[in-house]
Amino acid sequence: MPRPKKHVFVCTQNRPQGHPRGSCVSSGCGAVMNEFMNQIQARQLFDDIALTNTGCLGPCGFGASVLVYPDGVMYGKLKVSDVQSIIEQHLLGGEPVKSLQVPTEVW
Amino acid sequence: MPRPKKHVFVCTQNRPQGHPRGSCVSSGCGAVMNEFMNQIQARQLFDDIALTNTGCLGPCGFGASVLVYPDGVMYGKLKVSDVQSIIEQHLLGGEPVKSLQVPTEVW
Prior knowledge:
2 copies of one chain form a homodimer. Chain A is of the alpha+beta class. Chain A is built from 2 helices and 4 strands. The longest helix of chain A has 14 residues, at about 30-40. The mean pLDDT of chain A is about 95. At the A-B interface, strand 2 of A face strand 2 of B.
């Protein structure tokens, strides 16, 4: 891919049911990943926004976790309905969505 | 994890043997990932350097692929023996290792 303006990393870590750390899979990361993919495709943003699935990003209690670089902004507890505002306000508009970021003690 | 100074993303994408795109697994990414992990642990760099495995980063012909943010530097065709110079020159010293970067038309 070309070097993107924004690179979205979606944690897609899974763990067995009942694992004490939980996982982003159990918090619905698959649907969040799909929503990013669908919106990037629908808006034809492939040249500017890259999307990559990852292993554990750390804050398992705040899944689904999404990390945006080069800004270094970590979002947590994301739902499918949060994706549009991240794309429009942050990825395209340049302003991180503060209400969706994880607490500063987490990241 | 705390917000790191450098975040190392190692592609650990696998594909079936004989797949036309190949994969970073077939290019030895597992050993590269382990070497980063071992050196980060041996040098106790956990506070400053994060390490995350990812799905496909794009340049499959240049595996093992490693991407460093917030710099946005993509390394390619990495071997275990390349990891030490990336850690010392780039992650700690701040100067990307140009000889190990993928061509500019790739990233």
